[in-house]
Amino acid sequence: MVEQTVSTFGRLDAAFNNAGVQSPIAELADASGEEFDRVNGINLRGVFNCMKYELMQMRKQASGAIVNNSSLGGLVGVPGRAMYHAGKHGVIGLTKSAALEYAAQGIQINAVCPGIIDTPMVSGMLSAEPQAMEEMMKDVPARRLGRPEEVAAAVLWLCSQAQAL
C-alpha cells in the first residue's frame, strides 16, 4: 500500500489507519482466546502494521501525518466489551508513544476517538443488539449517531498544516 502510494505520488504525506471489528457482548471470563486474537489482530495489530510501513517512508521524507482511529471505547470501559476496548486502548498507547518518538523528525501522529458513528459495523450492532445500543445512545449528548464525514473532517484537519500552528 505504501509502496504503491509512493510509486504513484512520489511520497506519502498523510495516512488514516482505521481498523475496527466488534465482538459479541460477553463477560471476559466467557470470552474465547480466539475471539480476543481475532478482534485485536485487526483493531490493534492492523494499525501497528500500517504505521510501521508508513513511518518507514515518512522518516525518509522527514515529514508526514498519521491519524489512527481509536474509539470512545479506547477511553472508557463498558461491561461486555473488554476485547474491543482492549485493542482500542492499545491504539491510543501506540499513538502516544509513536507521536513522542517521531515529533522531532517532522512527523505528526494523532488519534481520533469517535463515539457511535453511522457505519456498517454500528448498523449491525443496532440490529443484533438493539437493547444494548439503545442503552449506549442514552449517553450520547446529541441524541443521534455521528456521521462519517464528521470524523473525516477532524482527520483532515489533523493531517493539515493548520493544526501545527
Give the topology, please:
Blueprint: H1 2-9, E1 14-17, H2 33-43, H3 45-61, E2 64-69, H4 82-102, E3 107-112, H5 120-128, H6 130-137, H7 148-159
Describe, in short, the structure shown.
With 165 residues, the protein is mainly alpha-helical. The chain has helices at residues 2-9, 33-43, 45-61, 82-102, 120-128, 130-137, 148-159; strands at residues 14-17, 64-69, 107-112.
Report on the structure:
The protein has 165 residues and is mainly α. The protein has helices at residues 2-9, 33-43, 45-61, 82-102, 120-128, 130-137, 148-159, and strands at 14-17, 64-69, 107-112. It has a 3-stranded parallel beta sheet with strand order 1-2-3, sandwiched between helices. β2 (64-69), α4 (82-102) and β3 form a beta-alpha-beta unit. The radius of gyration is 17 Å and the shape is globular.
